[in-house]
Specification:
This is Acyl-CoA/acyl-ACP dehydrogenase. InterPro entries: Acyl-CoA_dehydrogenase, Acyl-CoA_Oxase/DH_mid-dom, Acyl-CoA_Oxase/DH_mid-dom_sf, AcylCo_DH-like_C, AcylCo_DH/oxidase_C, AcylCoA_DH/ox_N, AcylCoA_DH/ox_N_sf, AcylCoA_DH/oxidase_NM_dom_sf. It holds the Pfam family Acyl-CoA_dh_N. Its cofactor is FAD. It is a single chain. The protein is an alpha+beta fold. It is built from 10 helices and 10 strands. The strands form 3 sheets. The protein has a 4-stranded mixed beta sheet. The longest helix is centred in the middle third of the chain and has 37 residues, at about 230-270. It binds flavin-adenine dinucleotide.
Length: about 400
Amino acid sequence: MDFELTDEERAIRDTARQFITREVMPLEQEALLRERRHEPGLDHSELRELQQKAKKFGFWGLSTPEEYGGMNLPAVLQSLIWTEVGRTFVQFKFGGEADNILYYANDQQKAEFLIPTIEGDRISCFAITEPGAGSDAANIKLSARPDGDDWILNGEKTFITNGNDADFVIVVAVTDREKGVRGGGTTAFLVDRAMGWRSEFIQTMGEGGPASLIFEDVRVPARNILGEIGQGFELGMKWIGKGRYLIPSNALGIAERALGMAVDYANTRETFGRKIGENQAIQWMIADSEVEIEAARWLILRAAWTVDQGWDPRHSSSMAKLFGARMVNDVVDRVMQIHGGMGYTRELPIERWYRQVRLMRIYEGTDEMQRLIISRDLLRGYTKIGGHLA
Ligand SMILES: Cc1cc2nc3c(=O)[nH]c(=O)nc-3n(C[C@H](O)[C@H](O)[C@H](O)COP(=O)(O)OP(=O)(O)OC[C@H]3O[C@@H](n4cnc5c(N)ncnc54)[C@H](O)[C@@H]3O)c2cc1C
């Protein structure tokens, strides 16, 4: 058994770490100040500039196939890099990426949607959730009915990340009520904002925020169908599946950075004439955090490795998402506790992380949905206890 990174993995991981440390972390104080004024910590043009700089470091399109100018990295390497990105709370991500399901586009759609998204010239969002259908995504109602060569879309999507900024949306609509959502009754459409949908910003406890998208008789030409008619729900599940190992990878970076801050603070802050780190109460919080971080690391890397083996990653990704999201919430909570009143202030990023990581237990499948998937796999005999080593 080999738990070591290869030389290549270590070199790429270290270069990503260097980039984040040298180019992104110095922007943190300014980002915090701006966010306190309810402005984005990093605006779109600054993000693009940083992404171009990262491109010179060799980071462009981590998951993007080489024919589109990307790196097409294995999932393990993508996971390692997302962990590095997680170390900074500046809302940075490497450029050259597009939603995984945009590769189902035909040649004309690739030119119109996929390539400009990879280049950063257009912003996409993905919409399946509705006011009446979140965890129960099969209950979506937004409808598309044919009208000549067009389709007419009516309904509402909600909680859509980037929904207020996006130039176009990949929206899953019901096209055949008889067949039902799981029976091939849904279709994904590529819909430009100019076609008439509107967005309404939703205030959340996090920085930035998702949006509701409202479709009232939005006319979409049939050439904007993504993939096949009837394939919408399947594509939606593919989109969601991707995040299930990347979200906890990101969480790992947050938890490591936050715990590092707690260790430093415990070694310097004095009460009752000695360092707080000399108290067992503080030591236990540090120890529990370290153990949970380490446990999460291996669940996440195994999920990514499962993807690289070409195996079905759903079970291992759900375990990584469930544990990783819980872990980062518990770690950040302890890190705040160790910092006492300072942890609660906006002088430090801890309260920001506290708000940010809470989302990880909710979106792209709640904790409860991950538990449902994990237990169902065992109860129905799809997976063995012990996974691939069983
Ligand atoms: C900031 C943010 C960004 C998001 N971005 C996107 C996006 O880009 N695109 C998109 O389509 N969606 C997005 N979402 C939606 C997100 O995926 C949903 O909010 C999530 O899936 C939960 O759905 P819900 O909010 O309707 O909760 P509900 O499904 O109503 O669940 C409410 C509670 O009941 C629990 N529950 C539900 N059913 C069961 C059950 N059978 N057994 C046990 N417990 C159950 C849930 O776990 C939860 O705790 C985003 C959400 C947020 C908050």
